[in-house]
Amino acid sequence: MTKKKEIEFLRVTHLRGPNIWTYRPVIETWLDIGALEDFPSNLLPGLYERLVALLPGLVEHRCGVGERGGFLERLREGTWSGHILEHVVLELQNLAGMRTGFGKTRSTSSVGIYKMAFRTRQEKVGRAALVAGRDLLMAAIEDQPFDLATVVGKLQEMVDDYCLGPSTGHIVEAATERRIPSIRLTDGNLVQLGHGAAQRRIWTAETDRTSAIAEGISSDKDLTKTLLKACGLPVPEGSLVRSAEEAWEEAQDIGLPVVVKPYDGNHGRGVSLNLMTQAAVEAAYALAARKGGSKSVIVERFVTGDEHRLLVVGKQLVAAAKGESLWVTGDGKLNLIALCDRDINTDPRRGDTEDHPLGLIRPDVSAEIILELARQGMDAQSVPLAGQKVLIQPNGNVAIDVTDDVHPSVAAAATLAARVVGLDIAGIDIVMEDISRPLEEQGGAIIEVNASPGLLAHLKPAIGKPRAIGSAIVGNLFGPDESGRIPIIGVTGTRGTSLIARMVGCMLRLTGVHTGVVNANGLYLDERKVSSANSMTFDAGERLLINRTVQAAVFESDARMILSEGLAYDRCKVGIVTDMDGHEALGEFYIDDMDAMANIIRAQVDVVMSDGAAVLNAAVQEVADLAPLCDGEVIFYAEDHALPCISEHRAGGHRAVFARDGAIVLAEGGDETVLLALSALKPATATYPGAVLAAVAASWAVGMEPELIAAGLRNFDASPAGH
After folding, report:
1. pTM attached to this predicted model
2. Secondary element (H or E) of residue 308
3. Whole-number Cα distances in Å, 194 to 183, 482, 487
4. 548: which strand partners?
5. Which residues contact 547 (CB under 8 A, 6 or more apart)?
6. Taking the CB of residue 328, how many other CB atoms lie within 10 A of it?
7. Computed from CA positions of residues 63, 68, 69, 70, in that sequence, does the dihedral angle turn out positive or negative?
8. What GO molecular function annotations does the UniProt record carry, in alphabetical order (predicted)?
9. pLDDT tens per residue across span 130-187
């Protein structure tokens, strides 16, 4: 019976941490390509043309060739469907707005079975792209129609639903550029930057430094004005009113035209400008009361000029955007809804998602626009005369970058306003005619101070260059020498690794830092066992990393965890490797020799930072052979001090820990320090000399003094009673 050409998913796994493929999260799938094993792409007539027609962006995939068009070259020459699927899935994610480029495909020892991995920023989107990619590839192979637009549309909806918003994503990317790790804490935009006690948290443009009191002040527009005025900042005259009648009385006292807005509103919702009549003021009051959810409404003097949004981060002005009014011109045929669609909404920068810096204009839906049209004696169904200009929205396009034009005194006023309210990140709305001139020269005024300001107008301005908002926010949260990291020690192998992890944790505790440990025996905080469950898991490790009291952390991992979940941390200060035993138990992962095992265990060495160290068991040659892969220092340990690799290592001036004449010795080049006799250890501890040496080397690697290490060893009890 002839096997059908198809691709079957045997297993799909989300590897959340560093793994055998890369440092970043990937989706790994095992593929059975069946009869397609006998049909590389060059033996599938028309596949190249059909695939390029469906996904022209594949030309940008460099693949192993290393240049633009590299993958297409491989496709022409002949490559297998597992590799093709990898690139199709990556391209589908790119089309959906979730840019990524990493992917790899490898054959296994079983004919037709492949392991394929691809980078994804969100698991659900990645899994959906994988299924869609298989459907697309099979349609191209079988010369069947495929509705790409519908598939990409669904993936885009998933990106909008599940991925970080563009503003939060921009901040996270800025943190990543500084090698500050991040953890997404919810399905929304709450993200932790950094680990343990060194962490900060963001929620779009709010941070854990954003004061709740300051947020409360900013939402009370009347109080905000009072505080700003008291500090000498220009604000428009106005008062709080509680009825339409009071609003009109206040408007007459101030002098027309006026502005009416909710006292507790935000982002310009419910704001009506340039009101000249009693009917307009009373209608604006109703709108403001409804939008603000309260009868309390502010009536204030209308300030002539354009609205500007100035973004303050910390004590610095980092961006400024200008607004301009939106107009349409009648043709005597189309109503205002159609004119807005023709003249305004066709702008590709407008849309309903967060990826669009400008929103769609709906004159039949937006209460502010409905009110503005009513002031002109029109509504959404009105048909203007040919050539007639109609104002749709005053200052409705606050997305023109003017950062380079800001007068120093205007910047000073904006930063002072943020400090007066108490916000670490603030959007200061100022109305003025010319941002390059001082406010007092033109009668400009601060009309609003916003907590959690929108960032998209500065990241994707309609006109002008984008601003590095993320870098400014990250720089405000972390000093120039801060990485958001705590010392992390990883232990991988099978020989005494649980004991090593706990011993290193006890050593670190002696330095006065709050220490967490996860190993196969449980989860420990400052030597107190808080869970007896096997904590050699990604979730248990993350519990340590999000704990704000933890100042150092130790993680036990093994080959199975790396293969099934990935490491629980992205980088570590010290990585310990004890052995490469146990590949015989990993047959289900197609791990069938020592080379495959080494490819797994090397992940522990790959994640060691350049200022860190790999602690390697010199008595296992395969482990010692990992030394060249380390970006940092290498410290060998072994019970046999005469091993050739230790002698060669010391000859190069490097460090080693070993046992000689019944004592533990620390060596750096030709210098030696006898730490203590093995007989000084508690009896249970002394039965694990290899584990003791590994723990000593790791403690030395993080900077512990020999005397303190010796004191810790004397007191450590490896017996069950000492747990």
Report:
1. 0.88
2. strand 306-313
3. 8, 10, 12
4. none
5. 196, 516, 525
6. 22
7. negative
8. cyanophycin synthetase activity (L-arginine-adding); cyanophycin synthetase activity (L-aspartate-adding)
9. 999 999 999 999 999 999 999 999 999 999 999 999 899 999 999 999 999 999 999 9
